[in-house]
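LAB NOTEBOOK - FOLDING QUEUE
OPERATOR: T.R.
BATCH SIZE: 2
PURPOSE: Compare the predicted structure-token outputs for two unrelated chains run back to back under identical settings.
PRIORITY: normal
REVIEWER: second-year student, initials M.K.

ITEM 1
FIELD SEQUENCE / FIELD STRUCTURE:
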Amino acid sequence: MKSTSPVARPLRIAIVAASLRILGGHAVQAQRLLQGWEDDRRVDARLVPIDPAPPRPFDALLRVRYLRTLVTQLWYWPLLVREVRRADVVHVFSASYSSFLLAVLPAVLIARLLGRPVVLNYHSGEAPDHLRRSAVARYVMRKWVDLNVVPSAFLRDVLGSFGIAARTIPNTIDVRLFPYRVRDPLGPRLLSTRNFEPIYNVACVLRAFARVQARHPRARLVLVGSGSQEAPLRALARELDLRDVTFAGRIPPSEIAGYYARADVYVQTPVTDNMPLSVLEAFASGLPVVSTRVGGVPALLTDGVHGLLAPEDDDEAVAAHVLTLLASPPYARQLAAAAHETCARYGWPVVRHGWLEAYRAVVHAPAARVPSAESV
């Protein structure tokens, strides 16, 4: 006899995050979660954008720096109320500093007022400084959030140092979007896809490239990104008399795989970092990676196994690593192959389980703090 018991409805998840209008790791990761939950009978996920688009009559106001935030907030709060009311769980992507106050705090506050459990997905590599400075962030994460989730053991330990319990669920990547290619032959075509902000220290990439180009005159560098440091970076490229440096600008996620496919070596030199999606994308694409040894990067990339690590802001060491790869293509291919094998742990089937367990934990015990646990 067939069972007549009703099928449980899917959990309704409000994912509060940047839309792809704000190109960055949070927006890309939120979209990957939404795509992962599509056609999944366990979860019904909807995006609640922290950057809602007001009606067209307000477009002119959005061009004024100080009015942009006010206009966005006028649409953000009512949108939050409507979407949080219909949700079972509120999944909030969190950065640091002003973004925490303008995007995260309203979402957590409204969720509490409406009695909805909150999963705070904290991603910031600047967590040590942010949490040291912000008593508000520390209080919210300790007292108002049902479960804090971070993508790396590095961030879990940082939060723990402030007495904030957290569960680790890694970022996810769809390897199908980044076709793996063995670099044979391996050429001096370098790629960096970090935004032009101080924490990503793209200036170090340029200084390292100057050293590489002195040895390989036909070397090329493509910089994908944008940000407050673009003008100084362009000036530095001129000062260093670099050739074949392309500032590609902001590239939509649908086109980024092509940049990895055309490169031979991936380079990044942040001064702080968490679990960069760009490194996972390079792994998936078959690019050997050179990075600075900061934040959560060493947990993602074992030096000499999955890539090469250099000290922070050390362009000489970064260049030496790139030159090592160019001089030893078999070694470069060995590192890239080992890195590619790690991508399975960041695939959706694994990460999906972690998120499903996190959502169920706060739904089943919404009135109590969910204990810290490793889901994956």
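ITEM 2
FIELD SEQUENCE / FIELD STRUCTURE:
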Amino acid sequence: MEHAQPESRTLFQYEDGYSFTRESGEATEVPCFGYGASRRMGDAAIVKHGSSNVDWSAASLFNDEAPLSNVEEWLLQADYAAKSSKRVHLRARFDQIKATLIRLLPDVEGFRIVGLEESRPQPSVEADTPYGWVPIRRLSLGYKALMAWVVDLASRLFEHYPDSAEPLTEAAVVLVDEIDLHLHPAWQRGLVGFLSERFPKVQFIATAHSPLMVQAAATSNLAVLRRQGDRVLIENSPGAVYGWRVDQILTSPIFGLDSARPPHLDALLEERQAIMTKPGLSEADKRRVAELDRDMEQLPFGEDPEEIAARALIKQFAERLRVLEGL
């Protein structure tokens, strides 16, 4: 008599609390994708690497010339497949990518496929921007670099999870080098939240040189890489910076800047400090301190333009009040 074998299940647990199980016989591999700093679009919708035509999804981490999926080509192929097939999920995936790009890219309200016309030798994809409809190949480098790796990631999730109703919500590990590269400060602040929302079960491991990225990811696991001789040391949990201003983060041990002020102002402050620490001040010293004080009085102090203007108004009122009291 044969005995039934116990059901085999494998549990995967992530730091954010998400977990999932796989039945015995099912694939348990969580895919890993990597994106280097160049993030160059290729000519094909899905790029294959190597003589064996095997898709190496982290090639651009180690080779600046390794291309990613071509966003325009992917959208064109996805649109054609959706229109020529009765399978509903193909249209859903095309719509998911469009919605992802619209949510990701500032000032882009939509995309359209431009068909064959006498003035257009081949179909193309255009983005709806404040300047009108612009071919995506003519968008700025920041737009194209961001689109390149996000669409590449989405297309690979579609490939890896062909039977999933929501491939963008499936698990993966994604490495991104210099994730802040070419991005406007406003993009940097919103990117972490966008990725967490759009790819909720993806573990992102990214490097950055921007305090804005640190500020946006202050509740994530932060680590600082420091060079020591011919080695690189990894300092985990370098210090809590939750709620800190960007200038405070810059002068924290994470970045280690001595000051967030302009270099010329630091020089003036150092000069004033050197004079004031003398045991006795000459008349020339006193005149120089007065000059430095006048120069620094013109500097703005405040969190924003409104506070700066308010401080200036208070200063003017105080000066006029002193004049009136002296009459």
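REVIEWER COMMENT (ITEM 2): The CA atoms of residues 99 and 110 lie 8 Å apart.
FOLLOW-UP: none requested
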